[in-house]
Specification:
Elements (H helix, E strand, L loop, with lengths): L1 E7 L9 H14 L3 E3 L3 E4 L13 E9 L4 H15 L7 E5 L7 H10 L7 H11 L2 E4 L6 H14 L4 E2 L11 E3 H4 L7 E4 L10 E3 L7 E3 L2 E8 L8 E3 L9
Parallel strand pairs: 9-12, 10-13
Antiparallel strand pairs: 1-4, 1-5, 2-4, 3-4, 3-7, 5-6, 8-10, 11-12, 12-13
Keywords: DNA-binding
GO molecular function, one term: DNA binding
């Protein structure tokens, strides 16, 4: 069974971030033998004075492959983890989705896209979750994080929003790699030019600081841009500032 786990608003300005909490949850699922987890993605939501958030208002989400009987214990584990490990003053929310059981994936994905541009209420989030048949729960504070958690699940399901939490790591520090070598990385499904097209597999790519992939078409894509200097590399990975739109 493939499920989505999304969380939001677990931190304060002094604590570890929601991304780290999501990674710890994924590790906990695997250590307990419930299944395997994908990489975690960060999804930027609407920033507005009417929306309380810690620093950037972003939700975290990942897929997990679990056994048919593991859904209830996994949900209970994540709920307990959030209640125990979320920072004081936070408003943590949890969403657990079984995509094949959702009554309308389109509605869930549309909710995620709306949360990137509109202020949405908790009542609306809970109403949609009940109608779609997904788990949505709050685990401290005001519970405001349920909005972001539901939105994060919808955006990950959509597959055209979000970027890898953390950065790609390689066996050895390499200033340049061929596209074919980049494609061997377990977290890289494709290498594409930011303005369209795809580099040749033999092209060299200059690896910048903290390279990361973005979600496009449901794939984990490493975006590159042309490199105009005299080096052998024809491309460079996009600087993180240019990834803020994803």
């Amino acid at each position: 069974m493939r499920i989505l786990i999304a969380i939001d608003d677990t931190d304060n300005l002094e604590s570890r971030g929601t991304g780290e909490i999501a990674s710890l949850i994924a590790d906990g699922l695997e250590q307990r033998g419930w299944g395997s987890c994908s990489f975690v993605t960060r999804h930027q939501l609407f920033v507005h004075p009417d929306i309380p958030y810690t620093s950037h208002n972003s939700a975290m989400c990942f897929y997990a492959e679990i056994g048919e009987g593991a859904l209830a214990p996994v949900t209970e584990f994540v709920s307990d983890f959030l209640g125990r490990e979320s920072a004081p003053g936070s408003d943590p929310g949890l969403c657990v989705v079984v995509p094949e059981r959702v009554t309308s994936e389109d509605e869930l994905m549309a909710f995620g896209r709306r949360a990137k541009r509109e202020v949405i209420t908790m009542d609306e989030a809970y109403g949609l979750a009940r109608r779609l048949g997904v788990h949505l729960s709050q685990h401290g504070g005001t519970g405001q994080g349920v909005i972001g958690a539901l939105a994060g699940a919808g955006l990950r399901l959509w597959g055209n929003d979000g970027r890898l939490k953390g950065a790609l790591e390689f066996a050895q520090p390499c200033p340049t790699l061929r596209v074919a070598e980049l494609l061997q990385h377990p977290l890289v499904d494709a290498v594409r030019c930011a303005d369209g097209g795809a580099p040749h597999e033999d092209d060299l790519v200059s690896i910048g600081e903290k390279p990361k992939t973005v979600l496009l078409g449901g794939s984990s894509v490493l975006l590159v841009s042309p490199l105009d200097d005299a080096s052998a590399a024809r491309w460079q990975t996009l600087h993180r500032k240019r990834l803020r739109g994803y």
